[in-house]
Every structure is written in structure tokens, then in C-alpha cells.
Design a protein that fits this description.
2,3-Dihydroxybiphenyl 1,2-Dioxygenase, domain 1; lactoylglutathione lyase activity; 3 helices; Glyas_Bleomycin-R_OHBP_Dase; Glyas_Fos-R_dOase_dom; 8-stranded mixed sheet; 115 residues; Glyoxalase_1_CS; alpha+beta
């Protein structure tokens, strides 16, 4: 398992991209849409930020999540003693991902890069 990114729910995607690029020197890595969400990954050196803009009110309450990249997602899903709140699903970029909720309602993502 290795650290991959932190995700931030944003109100205005382009404004947030500009903020992180202008002030902190981040570059756009990848951009895609999943269901009602516009998603952009920004990188700088070894740091990766996922910016998520959603139109659903229920999604706007989720402010933050963290993510670990794993080699075998199915193994992790089978081993964990908690039920996922979403997934496993396959994203347009080929990643397989699953979300869990921690004891303080934090979102925990595990994903496998299929490409």
C-alpha cells in the first residue's frame, strides 16, 4: 500500500485549479467526469490533490477523503471487516476504486490502477 492523494470537494472547479496552480505551482495531471462529478488531479513533485466538483447536495457535504493505492483491490475488499459505502466501481480512467467510512465519518478510498 502506498499513499496516493487527498481529495477536496470544491464549489468552483476552475477557480480551485487556478488557486493551486498560481499559488503553489501545481500542474494538471488528468481530468474526467464521473456521474455528476467533474474531477481533476493536480500534481507537484510527489504531492497529488484531487479536486471534485459535484452538482448533488448530498455530495457537497463530503469535504475530504484520503486515498491509498493497492496492488490487488479485491484482496483488500475481501480482507476488510467493514462494508464499503460505495464500490467497487471502475472509473473512466481505468482505476477500480472503493470507498469506506471511518469512525469519524471520514472517507477512505482504496484503488487499483488497472492501466
Amino acid at each position: 500500500m502506498k499513499w496516493h492523494h487527498i481529495g477536496i470537494q470544491v464549489k468552483e472547479l476552475e477557480r480551485s485549479i487556478s488557486f493551486y496552480q498560481t499559488n503553489f505551482g501545481f500542474n494538471e495531471e488528468i481530468r474526467f467526469q464521473y456521474e455528476d462529478e467533474q474531477i481533476v488531479f493536480l500534481t507537484r513533485e510527489t504531492i497529488r490533490i484531487e479536486l471534485i466538483e459535484s452538482r448533488l447536495e448530498s455530495r457537497k457535504a463530503e469535504q475530504l477523503h484520503f486515498s491509498w493505492q493497492v496492488e490487488n483491490l479485491d484482496e483488500w475488499v475481501d480482507q476488510l471487516k467493514i462494508n464499503p459505502i460505495e464500490g467497487p466501481i471502475t472509473l473512466p480512467n481505468g482505476w477500480r476504486t472503493v470507498f469506506y467510512q471511518g469512525p469519524d465519518q471520514e472517507l477512505i478510498e482504496l484503488f487499483q490502477n488497472e492501466s
